[in-house]
Design brief:
By secondary structure, the chain is mainly alpha-helical. It has one domain. 75% of the residues lie in helices and 0% in strands. The chain has ten helices and no strands. Helix 1 packs antiparallel against helix 3.
């Protein structure tokens, strides 16, 4: 696996760092909302948010849009590593995933509203607010999933059917796939004991992104930087170094 120029590999590494920063910020927001050292079975996000202070809920939501910007830039990794297979489809995949992250910033921020709602003491008013905010959250969630599913499908298609710079084994750790699989792992999450059960349940989705970009950063910092063109182009590239 090699890249045409040092600029290419530097851009990939920059995307990795942006993606990692955005993922860590999103995960930090999750922990501000409902992070707690309990077992998976004991973890209940609404109960945790009801006990959170207003400044923590506000900070957790305010992180979302900032994290989304960094994460959207991080999706450029899929363009730079897949464009040798098809520049058009690699660009499409990266844009779809970047838009997914930008919408996800709004989705994340809405949890602050859920936190406000669960603090309402009147039961009827609380249930009405929860229903209304949940409806808005779901309306934001569906386009996020659609963008993510389409972008992920293109990543798999290009990485598996074309010769690209994206390591195929890394497909196993695609965060969108791991996120969508969270419902399948629910019964397992419930068995995780304290103190990490609640952290895993509450941070699984954004933790998947942290895991992916951590490994991707390590991988792309170790690969060779070479020239894959003709000998004459290689000579010119070396002369410029």
């Amino acid at each position: 696996m090699s890249f045409d120029t040092r600029t290419d590999i530097r851009l990939v590494r920059l995307c990795c760092l942006f993606g990692l920063l955005g993922s860590v910020l999103f995960l930090t927001g999750d922990m501000l909302f409902y992070g707690n050292w309990v077992s998976g079975a004991e973890f209940h996000p609404y109960s945790e948010m009801a006990a959170r202070s207003l400044p923590l809920l506000i900070a957790g939501g305010a992180i979302g849009p900032v994290a989304a910007l960094f994460s959207a830039c991080g999706m450029g990794i899929f363009y730079w590593t897949l464009e040798s297979g098809s520049r058009k489809w690699a660009r499409t995949a990266a844009v779809l995933l970047a838009v997914m992250m930008l919408i996800a910033g709004s989705y994340h921020a809405l949890y602050t509203c859920l936190g406000f709602a669960v603090k309402v003491t009147d039961k009827m008013a609380r249930e009405t607010l929860l229903m209304q905010v949940t409806s808005l959250r779901d309306a934001v969630y569906y386009p996020t999933c659609a963008m993510g599913a389409a972008g992920t499908a293109l990543v798999y298609l290009l990485a598996l059917s074309k010769k690209t710079r994206f390591p195929r084994w890394l497909l196993i750790l695609l965060p969108t796939t791991l996120s969508l699989a969270s419902s399948a792992f629910r019964s397992y999450f419930l068995t995780i004991p304290a103190p990490i059960g609640g952290i895993v349940r509450g941070g699984w989705i954004n933790g998947s992104f942290v895991l992916f970009f951590t490994i991707a950063t390590y991988v792309f910092w170790r690969i060779d930087v070479g020239w894959t063109g003709s000998p004459s182009r290689l000579a010119r590239a070396n002369a410029l170094r």
